[in-house]
């Protein structure tokens, strides 16, 4: 046997090799078959592939044969427009109905101008009303993308899952696809799409549509921001131009009159006339600056409206005092009427309300010719609960305004023509300030005007009635004011002559002028360069040494408010009662309230009229006497 195997070794090896080859072939064939089965299992059919594209693509594709006017293929229609692809395959013009009317003309013009040599793109507004309601096909509600702010305002915009549709009974007819019940968002979001068309072979065009709402809105917002910035820059330049004119004009007059006064220094009568003109120009310049500060603070939202009790009929009496003589001197009739009010005590800002009416009357006085009539009335409309509704009516028989100008009447620097400022004066800020102040008080201004006939303003306000406590406090304050008037007539009233004044002022020029003015009025003045020095001088001297302290607010080391608080906190008998007045260029009501809050007796706005200083001091003395803070 061994010999046989040795002799036939080659044959045996061949048989063994053949057997191994057969086994390997069978194993390989088995692996190949298994791989083929797995590949077939993993590969979807053509319908599955189209469905996958339809549900995930961010674009709608339509292959259209324009030579034979038929659609060759559609994908992505449900994901973009919420429309079943079968509808588009049957009628390509469904795309046109999905375009908003606002954009349809642009799309049509783009296609009519298309030369079909290169692709075209056109942005359009989607007609969600059509894509979600009008088409008799199954609709998938498109996702509405809201910003975080919009989500906060519209929580109902997130739709709840639709209830499952029950299975049809065996043998029952297949239900017709219906519209899904749409959940209307609380805030409608306009959707935008980008349509692109390109040739795709002979006689065919490939149309694609994708939603570009986010990029469109971002681009629109950037354009709006640029336009707002450009408008703001133009407004800034116009503001600076107007301010340059309004400030330089009186400054030029002041410099001119002072130069003339120097040239005629030996002629007392001429010098007096020039100085009077300079004084009038300075008052006008101050009014310009006050108007600019008011409109600036209103625009920045920093102007506060006081809520204090006052008698609303006092506004009419105040206006009569301001304008009565001026209007009569011009030969104009001034007619004033006030409805009878059961309770005239309301809560609001008397100063700002008076400012509004003053601006209206000031314009009427300027634009009404002699022989005309100006009317002012306070009318009671109704009382609803604890709120009194009133209207101030101000009218004149002046020059009137054109309808075109009325549209911009309340804009800053609005004037009907360039000659108005030269002929009548004014910056064009008065009406803007009046309108904004009225709005801040919760009211509204209406205006009617006709050229050559006159103008009629109506200021509507709803003001809360004062409580009994507020009313009692206001009446007590009125009595104090009357006592102040009586004190001023008393021989023992305060006089600057013979008094000692501590003046705290860091600006040496202002300090020098103030010292000269006070000494001209007979006061002895000692000067401190800042708040620290003022406190040290007060502490060094005996109680009662100073009769009054005039304190600039803006000073280095320690400002006027801090210095006043320090003095009020000293343990000496006169620290509580010495009169301290703020001298400040800050003229807002908020600054005056703060001066009172830190212990000052009053707030005098610069430029200071020292002739009125004695009056202000006597008023404060009377108030302190009334409150029992000082002995009579």
Topology summary:
Elements: H1 2-7, H2 9-42, H3 46-56, E1 60-65, E2 70-75, H4 77-81, H5 85-90, H6 94-97, H7 101-112, E3 120-125, H8 128-134, H9 148-153, E4 192-199, E5 204-211, H10 213-263, H11 268-299, E6 308-311, H12 313-329, E7 333-338, E8 345-348, H13 350-367, E9 373-384, E10 387-396, H14 403-406, H15 419-424, H16 430-440, E11 444-450, E12 454-464, H17 468-489, E13 500-504, H18 508-520, E14 524-528, H19 531-540, E15 548-552, H20 560-568, E16 579-584, H21 589-597, E17 602-605, H22 613-627
Parallel strand pairs: 7-9, 13-14, 13-15, 15-16, 16-17
Antiparallel strand pairs: 1-2, 1-5, 3-4, 4-5, 6-8, 9-10, 10-12, 11-12
In words, what does this structure look like?
The chain is an alpha/beta fold and 632 residues long. The protein has 22 helices and 17 strands. The protein has helices at 2-7, 9-42, 46-56, 77-81, 85-90, 94-97, 101-112, 128-134, 148-153, 213-263, 268-299, 313-329, 350-367, 403-406, 419-424, 430-440, 468-489, 508-520, 531-540, 560-568, 589-597, 613-627, and strands at 60-65, 70-75, 120-125, 192-199, 204-211, 308-311, 333-338, 345-348, 373-384, 387-396, 444-450, 454-464, 500-504, 524-528, 548-552, 579-584, 602-605. A 5-stranded antiparallel beta sheet has the order 2-1-5-4-3, with helices on both faces. A hairpin with a 2-residue loop joins β9 and β10. The radius of gyration is 43 Å and the shape is elongated. Mean pLDDT is 77; it is low at 35-46, 131-186 and 418-424.
């Amino acid at each position: 046997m061994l010999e046989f195997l040795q002799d036939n070794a080659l044959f045996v090896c061949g048989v063994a090799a053949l057997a191994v080859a057969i086994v390997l072939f069978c194993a390989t064939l088995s692996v190949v078959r298994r791989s083929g089965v797995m590949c077939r299992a993993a590969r979807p059919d053509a319908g599955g592939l189209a469905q996958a594209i339809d549900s995930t693509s961010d674009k709608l594709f339509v292959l259209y044969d324009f030579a034979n006017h038929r659609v060759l293929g559609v994908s992505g229609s449900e994901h973009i427009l919420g429309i079943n692809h079968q509808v588009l395959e049957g009628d390509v013009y469904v795309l046109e109905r999905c375009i908003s009317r606002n954009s349809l003309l642009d799309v049509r013009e783009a296609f009519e101008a298309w030369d079909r040599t290169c692709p075209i793109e056109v942005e359009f507004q989607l007609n969600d009303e059509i894509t979600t309601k009008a088409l008799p096909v199954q609709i998938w509600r498109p996702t509405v993308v809201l910003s975080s702010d919009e989500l906060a305002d519209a929580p109902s915009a997130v739709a709840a899952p639709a209830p499952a549709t029950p299975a049809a009974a065996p043998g029952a007819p297949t239900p017709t696809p219906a519209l899904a019940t749409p959940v209307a968002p609380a805030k409608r979001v306009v959707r935008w799409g980008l349509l692109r068309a390109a040739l795709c072979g002979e006689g065919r065009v490939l149309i694609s549509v994708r939603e570009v709402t986010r990029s469109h809105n971002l681009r629109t917002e950037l354009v709006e921001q640029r336009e707002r910035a450009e408008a703001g820059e133009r407004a800034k330049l116009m503001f600076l131009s107007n301010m340059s004119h309004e400030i330089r004009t009186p400054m030029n007059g002041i410099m001119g009159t002072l130069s003339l006064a120097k040239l005629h220094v030996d002629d007392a009568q001429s010098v007096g006339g020039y100085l009077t003109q300079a004084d009038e120009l300075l008052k006008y310049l101050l009014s310009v600056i006050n108007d600019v500060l008011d409109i600036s603070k209103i625009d920045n939202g920093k102007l506060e409206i006081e809520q204090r009790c006052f008698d609303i009929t006092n506004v009419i009496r105040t206006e009569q005092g301001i304008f009565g003589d001026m209007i009569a001197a011009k030969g104009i009739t001034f007619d004033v009427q006030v409805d009878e009010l059961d309770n005239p005590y309301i809560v609001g800002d008397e100063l700002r309300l008076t400012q509004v009416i003053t601006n209206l009357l000031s314009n009427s006085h300027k634009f009404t010719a002699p022989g005309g009539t100006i009317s002012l009335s306070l009318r009671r409309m109704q009382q609803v609960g604890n709120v009194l509704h009133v209207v101030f009516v101000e009218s004149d028989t002046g020059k009137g305004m054109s309808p075109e100008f009325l549209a911009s009447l309340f804009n800053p620097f609005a004037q009907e023509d360039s000659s108005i400022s030269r002929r009548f004066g004014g910056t064009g800020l008065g009406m803007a300030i009046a309108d904004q102040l009225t709005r801040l008080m919760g009211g509204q201004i209406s205006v009617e005007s006709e050229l050559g006939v006159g103008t009629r303003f109506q200021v509507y306000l709803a003001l809360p009635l004062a409580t009994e406590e507020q009313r009692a406090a206001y009446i007590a304050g009125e009595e104090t004011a009357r006592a102040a008037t009586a004190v001023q007539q008393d021989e023992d009233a305060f006089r600057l002559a013979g008094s000692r004044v501590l003046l705290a002022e860091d600006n040496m020029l202002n300090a020098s002028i103030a010292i000269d003015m006070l000494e001209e009025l007979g006061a002895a003045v000692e000067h401190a360069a800042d708040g620290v020095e003022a406190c040290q001088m007060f502490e060094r001297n005996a109680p009662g040494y100073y009769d009054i302290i005039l304190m600039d607010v803006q000073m280095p080391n320690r400002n006027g408010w801090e210095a006043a608080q320090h003095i009020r906190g000293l343990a000496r008998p006169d620290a509580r009662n010495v009169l301290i007045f703020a001298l400040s260029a800050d003229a807002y009501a908020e600054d005056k309230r703060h001066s009172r809050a830190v212990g000052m007796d009053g707030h005098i706005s610069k430029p200071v009229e020292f002739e009125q200083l004695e009056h202000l001091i006597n008023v404060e003395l009377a108030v302190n006497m009334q409150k029992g803070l000082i002995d009579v």
